[in-house]
Design brief:
The complex is a heterodimer.
Chain A (H helix, E strand, L loop, with lengths): L6 H25 L38 H36 L2 H35 L1 H34 L7 H33 L14 H5 L4 H30 L3 H22 L2 H15 L1 H9 L5 H23 L11 H18 L8 H7 L13 H24 L2 E2 L5 H25 L5 H4 L3 H22 L4 E2 L10 H27 L4 E3 L3 E2 L10 H35 L1
Antiparallel strand pairs in A: 1-2, 3-4
Helix pairs in contact in A: 1-4, 2-3, 2-5, 2-7, 2-19, 3-4, 4-5, 5-7, 7-8, 7-9, 7-18, 9-10, 11-12, 11-14, 11-18, 12-14, 14-15, 14-17, 15-17, 18-19
Chain B lengths: L1 H23 L20 H13 L28 H10 L10 H10 L33 H15 L28 H7 L27 H7 L6 H10 L18 H4 L2 H15 L4
Helix pairs in contact in B: 2-5, 2-8, 3-4, 8-10
The chains are: A mainly alpha, B mainly alpha.
């Protein structure tokens, strides 16, 4: 048998795949407008296919590159690419908002902070592009048949993708380097428009690349054996596309917030001058606020995604939530628990910098207790793996009491209460050091207390009711629970906002007056967010199990197995450490350049 | 540099903690379905029904949705609020005004339900928003399940047997290659000792013919007494049938003095057909005195 991994063979395959990609990209771009409409999910062949069925491969179809698993190589590079991509897509969203706030209020601090945020993402943007290139190279080299198959289907959007990428780069450079030149008058409007275009290009790139991932999970627009039906829109517009688009859009904001929070924490810890510390403390607070604002609706986007996933394939849904991946959600609970506790801890510590914040410090114990109890409920598994003697002692695989906390009724209740508690912590922070001037303040406070109590009671009652109805109906209860949470947040924000309009302050906020451990809470958020993204990236991809494209293109590589959670966690950890090292390098680079500039 | 080192150490600690926790919880690796041919030589209707049950609970993944807990799909092999087992209620489905398939006999209805599930959707089990006109069930002959015609027949035989109606599917007469079989774990083991090790039977049972390393676990029945347990069971099944069902459906026969819900219920998912056959044959022979 010929050696499969000779450099010559590899080079030839890479060249062939690259040429095919180029030809398809060019031809596909021209043909884009001429594509015929044909919407047919996999399994419902409405028209004759124009493509070939997905190939049936053998282990020999997968070239090797050095030692180690091909999947792990692609996994690490793809995940690093996604970390940076999420960051560079998330940051411009809130930078645009902050710049807009700065323009509206005339407060130059916002403008300066927005510029500093975008500056951090400049190097990250280069890393994103480089890692994307390496990923394409690895896919072409290690999974040539899959790459060719995908390119044949997605060829019409490849040219659009390339053009958008250049468009995004152009907007980013004009946006950053033109900041000072377009800082006032009409120029500022032009600058904001460039920022908007930057976001539009970034978002379009994201939804285009999301369609590749969702096609692999829930294919549409192809026959049951994978032959392309000719309509790329039908392929892109699969059942999971929009849920993933929304989920990633929100997650990118939260993630971008957490990473710039880590940047601010790093700068705070290395700052010497008090005014510098004050600036980065304020930046850290803002970043934490952005991260939590992004985090709060994320579980709801997750519900939608899971609901659509169940609707697409109950088998896939049950494998996800009750099968081999069920325990992954216990790890997820640990991570989200850490994120909630970290964000709240940071807020509680922040009360020390607000004169008059002491009044609310006695609430911290209560909020911490609620968060901890909810975290423990969320953390409780439904089934427990035990030794035979433990099963005998317990009387079954489910704990007689705690087993009841492992079902979604309890978990949904817990996460909604955690969200409300975190929102309450924000509300208290906003009120700290302020005295309302309205005459109905006492009544307003009573209304707020009643609102929170009624909301919590409704969420808990719905959770308990869930134990008395069938599972398929029970899942629907998450919707009124979510709406209760959203209603309380909206109504409480409104009441509190009106009540504290024109309120007098007991003193200026002492920015910079924060203990060092508060900054480590920001690092905890950044690391946990990153790790969580890696974990959820694994399950999103892993749910396909032994399929490159679920049900239509089988994976025959030696890596077609679904790895254990421990194995996946180790890969995620390595990836996160590489990413954190790269991010800290970017932070250090910023300090280094400033030192050089100061020296000159 | 000190701050950088502290931040890196902190990040390492957090990441290490998450990794440690992830490695401390139950670990399960899922292999892709292996390709295996099922020899139908000497197949009896009894073993065909048993094969059907193994496919039903394993490769077919039917109980994922058709179970009494989730209420995601009608019950098939047991009676419940949905009525008698599906093979018994097939004639009434065919007579139902909402039925729009092409079957004329119960057996054809069962086959059609598996490959074209929207021909009749039980009230309350359709896709949301379709008014129970579209079933969420996949075609089991395609996609990720991909049962062969013989496997579908075996499942029909099992459903008919479970419902207590006449088994009308014919026995396959020649060896048929199945496309894929139940998920395996690093390939099927070939002897009882390795099998008892792999599936941890020795943790709870004394397994005849297997080195117990001086241990005499009493969590589950001593498998030397299988003949006695089978005779004592109310359904009086033949020994091999009793054994097969006890493995894939542990709560069906709970020996006197032992608790239900103790034995893992997922062997049908985890064992390959050949491994189940090996276990049944090996234990049955030991119980019959080694003949």
């Amino acid at each position: 048998m010929k050696p499969r991994n000779t450099l010559f063979t590899l080079a030839r395959r890479v060249l062939a795949v690259s040429l095919v990609a180029l030809i398809f990209a060019v031809n596909g771009g021209v043909a884009f407008a001429a594509e015929e409409a044909a919407v047919a999910p996999a399994g419902e062949t409405a028209i004759a296919p124009v493509g070939q069925p997905a190939p049936v491969l053998t282990e020999e179809s997968y070239p090797l590159l050095g030692g180690g698993s091909s999947r792990v190589k692609v996994w690490i590079v793809a995940q690093l690419h996604l970390f940076f991509a999420a960051f560079v897509l998330g940051v411009p969203i809130f930078v645009l908002v902050i710049e807009g706030i700065g323009m509206a209020t005339g407060d130059k601090r916002y403008d300066a902070m927005a510029k500093e945020f975008i500056k951090i993402s400049m190097v990250a943007f280069s890393f994103t592009a480089t890692l994307g290139g390496i990923l394409l190279f690895l896919l072409a080299m290690l999974y040539p048949d899959f790459t060719v198959y995908s390119l044949k289907i997605f060829r019409p959007i490849l040219i659009a993708y390339a053009l958008l990428f250049f468009g995004e780069s152009l907007c980013l450079y004009i946006y950053y380097y033109g900041w000072e030149a377009m800082s006032s008058g009409f120029g500022k409007w032009v600058h904001l428009t460039v920022g908007l275009l930057l976001n539009a290009a970034g978002m379009t790139l994201m939804v285009l690349s999301n369609s590749w991932a969702t096609f692999m999970m829930a294919p549409s627009g192809v026959t049951p054996d994978g032959a392309f039906l000719g309509d790329v829109w039908a392929v892109m517009h699969g059942p999971l596309w929009n849920p993933i688009n929304l989920h990633r859009f929100i997650a990118n904001i939260a993630y971008g917030g957490s990473i710039v929070g880590a940047y601010a924490a790093y700068k705070f810890l290395t700052a010497k001058a008090p005014e510098e510390k004050a600036h980065y403390d304020w930046m850290g607070y803002t970043a934490n606020f952005i991260a939590v604002v992004g985090l709060l609706p994320l579980p709801f986007a997750g519900y939608w995604l899971t609901k659509e996933l169940y609707a697409y394939s109950q088998q896939m849904g049950i494998t996800l939530m009750g099968g081999i991946f069920a325990w992954l959600f216990i790890i997820q609970a640990l991570l989200i628990g850490a994120i909630f506790l970290g964000a709240n801890y940071y807020l509680w510590l922040g009360l020390v910098r607000v004169p008059g914040g002491e009044a609310y410090r006695k609430a911290i114990g209560w909020m911490a207790t609620v968060l901890l109890v909810c975290f423990l409920v969320w953390f409780t598994p439904h089934t427990i793996i035990m030794t035979s003697s433990e099963i005998k002692a317990l009387g079954g695989a489910h704990h007689p009491v705690l087993g009841a906390l492992g079902v979604m009724s309890a978990k949904n209740t817990a996460v909604n209460i955690m969200i409300l508690t975190t929102f309450l912590a924000f509300l208290l922070y906003q009120r700290a050091g302020k005295i309302p001037k309205v005459g109905w303040a006492r009544g307003g406070n009573a209304a707020l207390a009643a609102l929170f109590a009624a909301g919590a009671a409704n969420i808990v009652t719905l959770g308990i009711y869930g134990y008395y109805i069938p599972a398929n109906i029970r899942i629907g209860l998450s919707v009124p629970q979510v709406f209760t949470t959203l209603f309380v947040i909206a109504a409480a924000s409104l009441i509190n906002g009106v009540m504290y309009r024109g309120a007098s302050e007991t003193g200026p906020t002492r920015w910079g007056d924060m203990p060092a451990r508060s900054q480590y809470a920001l690092f905890l958020l950044a690391v946990s967010f990153t790790w969580l993204m890696g974990l959820m990236g694994y399950v999103r991809s892993g749910i396909r199990q032994h399929w490159h494209v679920y049900t239509v293109f089988r994976d025959y590589s030696p890596d077609a197995f679904t790895p254990t959670l421990g194995y996946a966690a180790n890969v995620v950890s390595v990836t996160v450490l590489i990413f954190m090292a790269m991010v800290i390098f970017i932070f250090w680079l910023d300090n280094f350049s400033r030192k050089k500039a100061a020296h000159k | 540099m000190k701050t950088l080192a502290q931040i890196l150490a902190f990040s390492l600690m957090v990441v290490g903690g998450y990794s440690w926790f992830s490695n401390s919880i139950p670990q399960l690796r899922a292999e892709p379905p292996s390709e295996e041919s099922v020899s139908l030589e000497g197949m009896t209707m009894e073993s065909f029904v048993a094969l059907g049950q193994t496919i039903f609970e394993g490769k077919g993944t039917c109980p994922l949705c058709h179970n009494a807990v989730g209420h995601r799909a009608p019950l098939l092999v047991e009676a419940g609020s949905d009525g008698p087992p599906v093979a018994a209620r097939a004639p009434s489905r065919l007579a139902d005004g909402r039925y729009h398939g092409t079957a004329s006999k119960p057996e054809e209805y069962l086959r059609e339900s598996m490959v074209s599930p929207s021909a009749f959707v039980v009230e309350g089990f359709g896709k949301p928003g379709t008014g129970d006109s579209v079933s969420p069930m996949p075609d089991v002959s395609a996609g990720s399940i991909k049962l062969s015609p013989v496997e579908i027949d075996a499942v029909i035989a099992y459903m008919q047997s479970a419902a207590g109606v006449d088994i009308t599917v014919p026995l396959p007469t020649e060896a048929v290659e199945t496309a894929e079989s139940a998920p395996a774990d690093e390939g099927a083991v070939k002897d009882m000792g390795a099998l008892a090790e792999k599936y941890e039977c020795k943790l709870c049972h004394i397994v005849p013919g297997v080195d117990m390393a001086g241990e005499a676990p009493d969590m589950g029945p001593d498998l030397n007494g299988l003949k006695r347990y089978a005779k004592g069971a109310p359904d009086k099944l033949p020994l091999r049938e009793y054994l097969r069902l006890s493995i894939v459906e542990p709560n069906r026969h709970v020996a006197q003095g032992f608790e239900p819900d103790t034995m893992p219920p997922d062997f049908a998912d985890r064992m390959r057909v050949s491994e189940l056959d090996l276990a049944v044959e090996s234990l049955a022979r030991a119980a019959e005195g080694g003949k």
